[in-house]
Amino acid sequence: MHPMNLIPLAKPVPVDDARDWLDHVAIWSGAVGALLAAFAIGYAAWQSVQTKKDLVRERRLEFELGLLAEIRRQMSITQFQHLSGYVGALVRDTQDETDIPVLRALVGTKAGPNGRRRRDELADAARGRAADPQADWLQCAAEEVDAAIQRRLEG
To answer: SS3 of 32, please?
Structure first.
């Protein structure tokens, strides 16, 4: 026989589960803390996404305002020459004729039906007065660019 088997072992002493109110408070505060931490992490992630969207929107706005300012400056120098690249970079959706529709038709870049129709109306009106439509086109295009700048500044 092995000598360890000869030692009598005492029966385990039964112990009642001793939980007082502080144990319950600690458990619940831990659970609440974990939930608050999860909420804070989720909110921080959402806020990060919103900040990135705002940054992209701000950069796009700055880019568009720079393009519109350059279009306006270039129009004062060369009228409608050399504007195609600026207009092409500014207009993202060819179906949306909110921005500079007549100018788009005049330079032949991403022109829509409304812009072409308005361009032709201006030309017909100028011919009816026996005038060159260039001045009317230039005035209309300048007003469109100014309106596009104003929309971006207000929006």
So the answer is: helix
Cα separations (Å) of 106 from 10, 69, 81, 100, 155?
102, 18, 10, 10, 27
Residues 44-55 pLDDT 10s: 999 999 999 999
- Chain CA centroid to CA 105, Å: 27
Measured CA distances, 46 to 42, 58, 109, 138, 141 (Å)? 6, 18, 39, 46, 41
The DSSP annotation for 115-138 comes to HHHHHHHHHHHHHHTT--HHHHHH
For residues 118 and 122, give the distance between their C-alpha atoms in angstroms, rounded to a whole number.
6
What's the longest Cα–Cα distance across the chain? 129
Q: Which of 143, 128, 7 is nearest to 68 (CA)?
A: 143
Q: pLDDT, tens digit, for every residue of 26-38?
A: 889 999 999 999 9
Q: Rounded to an integer, what distance in angstroms lies between the CA atom of residue 151 and that of residue 134?
A: 25
- Is the pTM above the cut of 0.90? no
Using CA of residue 28, residue 31, residue 34, residue 40, what is the dihedral sign? Answer: negative
